[in-house]
Amino acid sequence: MDSAEEFLTRRQMLAASSAMVAAGVAGCMGGEKEGRGEGGISSWQPTIPDEINFNSWATGYPWSQSWMLLEPVQRFYADGSMTLEQISDWEYDPDEQAVTVEFEEGWYWWNGDQVTAEDKYWYEECARLFQGDGSDIEELILEDEMTLTRVYKEPQNPELVQYQLGGYLGEMQRVHRDKFKPWAEELQDAADHDERLEIQEEMAEEMPLHISTVMDEGLGNGPFEIVDYDTEGIYCELFEDHPYADEIEIDEFEFVLAQDDALAQRIQGGVVDFGFGLLQQWVGEGTAPNSMDNITVYNDTFMRKLEFFGQGPGAEHLRRREVRRAIAHVLNLEHISTNYNTESVPREAQTGLPSAVTENWLDDSYVESYIDYPVQDDEERATELMEQAGYELRGDEWVDEDGDLVSLQLVLPDFRTNLARTISDQLINFGFEIDFNVLESATYNDRKSNNVDFDLTIENHGGQIAHPFYYFRHNHTAGNELGETVDIEQALDAGETRSPYNGREIVVEVPTEVGQEDLSGSTEEVNLFELDQEWRSVNDEQRNQEIAETFSWYWNFHLPGVNLVEVQTGTFGNTQDYDFNTETNDWEAYRGAYRGLKRGHISPSD
């Protein structure tokens, strides 16, 4: 998942999609670059350098590369921890609904300018004014050169605010203040929102932050400064004023242009020295040189889930809890994990959370009472569940009370095909009819843009931030998506209890006794949307815990989806020519390979 996706809702992502299209290599790979010095190291990036644009409101922003060339103000790790980087302190004032962030001195842009609160202020002021009523921010206040205050429209949960100190588009310090200040001032003078949207279009067209501009004007802030680029790569040298420069033993860094088969060839040929992800993700098994190995391996914060929807052609079936549970019993997660073309481990419990997040946030005594779903298939129990719901097996096909086949439409983007084939085969073998549809990513996104008219898909589940909220938020595909706030509110006001976006239940009944498998005993009504809204503003540690438990128990009981696997990721590298210090969790973060280099954990072998 691109870093931007983590901080945008579905609707915001669609609106911003034109600014996030990564440029392809388009066959212009060129030859191998020679001349990397003994003190240098190389990784890869997939975009023709001339097509890179550091204006995040325009096409061509280097979302992945920015994790190397820029610095975050805070950093999140897979174990749920967080560190402040360019922030020295922060405080949330519940009375004012405001968070005040003090920025750390000692961080510099490549041009020598101190990184200040103004860099965030002018960038975020553009975002706030572009978003209009859709922004959570009522006002931004530049208290002084190093202090920024964000005044929110609604009360905030301090436990969640600490993950949002980076402001718009997350934690990255993306752009020098001088570039967006004139545009923000123009936006402040605009007469209405329509005029601000016109300014946004002008800014995207008239202010390209071309890679040459960033290089010539020194507009990066990472420890490796761009000094040259061509059709084959981007070439950087150590930035001596970076606060970690003295800890870095690498003098030069090169971004080689490569992706897909060309990337595999360059890894095999020793042109690429290290990178994010596991080695087997990029090259075929047994084809990597002996010098290459995985440096770190860990479970990512994102799982893969099979999602159930409630208004597709098979809605009458999937709206029955027994059918969803039967599907969970049909699936053999071990086989799914083995056949998946990404390294993974089966998710052994349906808590709605990865194992580490479950352990960190939920009491063992609470979770041990949950309904148990198998890791291997249990067709006998699946059959019992289908029969309880009134279905019967006619020959080798399941039919309902009217004799109609249980037919479900599975629609997915093309990059999920490998995972979906295994799932589809298992469901078909059990007796379901599966209408299997693979779409190009853009077509798939278009089909889901306004509403979901199919039954099943496969999506990410989670967030870069390993907090339960990000797994159950209502307005994100990687959460427990129910749709946009205004649409849900209108549906509830009209007396509806299901999402107008995808047909999922908004208001549910859950047993008060955790582990109860039906609703025959004492129950409570839970409005998932209202609980989500409360979570965003609650200021009580115990209530935070209770809400996390309620959402997790809801997932386990109602099963709006099945968590299939926990994806494994990490860093690979050339262990013959470089030493990697792995005694740190710096590697276990998004694009951790870059962080390892940026914090001095890679050094030339003696």
TrEMBL record:
Record Pfam families: SBP_bac_5
Record-given protein name: Family 5 extracellular solute-binding protein
InterPro entries: SBP_5, SBP_5_dom
Sorted UniProt keywords: Signal, Transport
Organism: Natrialba aegyptia DSM 13077
Superkingdom field: Archaea
GO MF, any single term: peptide transmembrane transporter activity
Entry similarity comment: Belongs to the bacterial solute-binding protein 5 family.
GO process terms (BP): peptide transport
Solute-binding protein family domain segment(s): 88-475
